[in-house]
Amino acid sequence: MKKFLTVLTLAALFVCCQKGSQNPPEVVTPQSVTIKPVISKATELSFEQGDKVGLAIIKDDKTKHADNAPMTYRDGMFTSEVVWYEQASTKSQFMAYYPYSTTGMPATFSVSTDQTKEYDSSDLMIAVKESVTPTNDAVDMEFNRLLSRIVVNVNKSDADINSIVIQNSIPTATVDWTNLTATVDTKVAAADIIAQTVTDNSLYRAIVVPQTVSLTVMVTTTQGKTYATKLGSATIVGGGQYKVDAQLDKERLVVSMSSEIENWSDQGEIKKKVVVDPTPEGATAYITKVFDYMPAVGQFTNKLPLYEEGDTQEIMNQKVLAAIGNNKRGLINLGGFGGYVVVGFDHTIANVEGKRDFRVLGNVFYANANPDVNAPEGGSCQPGVIMVAYDADKKGVPELCEWYEIAGSAHEDPKKELWYQKAYDANNDVDIIYDYEITYHKPKKEPTSQDEWATYIPWEDNKGWSGHKVKNQFHKQPYYPLWAKGDKLTFKGTRLPQNGVDESGVGRYYVLYKFRYGYAGNELNVRDDSAIDISWAVNKKGERVHLPGVDFIKIYTGINQENGWLGECATKIMSIEDLHILGVSIDTRK
């Protein structure tokens, strides 16, 4: 049986009284213990805010100090109004269970027969701890799952499924607090259990009592047709998870159950919706923190912001905040491909359904003398890929969060960009590469003549290409970030198609064309497509994810391209602003 560890805390009063004492009783509040429980009962492998357990405290003399006292889960602990007994050396037994019931500590337990709504309340867990004495610390208790879970994976279905029912199991068990087990009550009749839908037409689950049984899986379609198949006899043990594969093909239901017992995990858990307040009181709409900044090689590196001898990474982060934080609207440079900045806010930017949530301000302008008068919009569009992270545990550390990428228009299909054919004809690399990696090598010395500009800083990537970042006559400072440690810099990420085209044909007039949407430094600040919908976020597999909001944003230059005298493509950032706090409503793309 798999055990699950959490903390059960009597956040109560420890009253130490002695007879004959003239001093008032000492009141001690137990210290809070913050851990991350590994209970797979609910989302994120933990109990959730507001969950309740029942607690009994039985002293060595068999008197009950507490009997079915309700305790509520808050911020990683269960708390209650229970007061410790006065005898500091007296030991007691703690008994706890989930889900809480006003009827008392369970001697028997029945799972719900309709788990579309009562799935969580069917998940019986108990914990027992001996020899507990009054303490200021939290009381650790290991909770044990006593029941079993059936997970039905529908691999194929020729019709939409209305429900899946697990038939022929007895829903009631007796609870053995000594051995921490649940035993089927054979005096109770078998029942049908309606499984909870995790994903329509794909994944279903139900909690059942451990028993030896031949289950029947019944599938009902939205058209009202019913199909049932009986499984072979199997012994279902407590704490185990059993996988059933189902296929509804041409009005024939085929099911099979694996004999392998799995540990319960969070796979397939239904995430309870977290709602983020889009306009929290006292919040500012702008960047309030800079966690990291490392530009790649570029003509504005060491200038935006200005590097001064002796500046450390921390000082450069502070300079970035001074430039683009708190609505200052200065400008920072990210350099060539991969150069990045990581920022945060004093609140969570809410993901409001149907709306764009934040805007990235840059220094984009359009060409006003493009030789191709029929060309699509473009000019100084130097797109940066945007990544977002939601701080679910509120630890305030970006490194501990999972990052997701905003899937802009090129992620959808580069060929849909209006300038795609133009860039292709110019021999640009118009592919999008999701696993791109580039390494820049620190130059041994600065160029002493113009002849050395073209071979200034060498680079190579993981696709077999190599080249040099070129120095130009307009910017004489070093292009390699001078506070960076080591003799090389490596960046990884999604490389976007090259959007710069020499429209003059002789190197005089370069136009960097606009992607349709979804990137930083790509659109005029006043246009709607400079705004981002958090719902565009995808995971590493390119699958859409739902985030209730974002706490951290990372932006990195998305293109590796030299554009003649204009220099490298380098994203530049002026600010990021929360549209909801500003009261700006922009619909998402349809």
| Helical segment count | 4
Number of strand segments: 42
Count of structural domains: 3
The profile of the biggest β sheet is:
7 strands, antiparallel
- In the predicted model, the low-confidence regions spanning at least 5 consecutive residues are 1-7, 9-45, 266-271
Give the distance, in angstroms, between the N- and C-terminal Cα atoms: 49 Å
The helicity comes to under 10%
Strand content: 35-45%
Whole-number mean pLDDT: 88
Radius of gyration: 31 Å
Q: What characteristic shape results from the CA principal axes? A: elongated
- Helix and strand content put the structural class at mainly beta
Strand order of the largest sheet: 1-10-9-7-4-5-6
In short:
With 590 residues, the chain is mainly beta.
What does the secondary structure layout of this molecule look like, with pairings?
Elements: E1 3-8, E2 14-16, E3 26-28, E4 52-59, E5 64-74, E6 77-79, E7 92-98, E8 108-110, E9 125-132, E10 139-145, E11 148-157, E12 161-169, E13 172-176, E14 181-184, E15 191-194, E16 196-199, E17 203-208, E18 211-213, E19 216-221, E20 226-230, E21 234-236, E22 240-248, E23 253-257, E24 262-263, E25 289-294, H1 313-324, E26 332-333, E27 340-350, E28 358-361, E29 378-379, E30 384-389, E31 403-406, H2 409-412, H3 420-425, E32 433-441, E33 457-461, E34 466-469, E35 488-495, E36 500-502, E37 510-513, E38 531-532, E39 537-538, E40 549-557, E41 572-573, E42 575-578, H4 579-582
Parallel strand pairs: 11-22
Antiparallel strand pairs: 1-10, 2-3, 4-5, 4-7, 5-6, 7-9, 8-13, 9-10, 11-17, 12-15, 12-19, 13-14, 16-17, 18-21, 19-20, 22-23, 22-24, 25-27, 26-41, 27-40, 28-38, 28-42, 29-37, 30-31, 30-40, 31-39, 32-33, 32-35, 33-34, 36-37
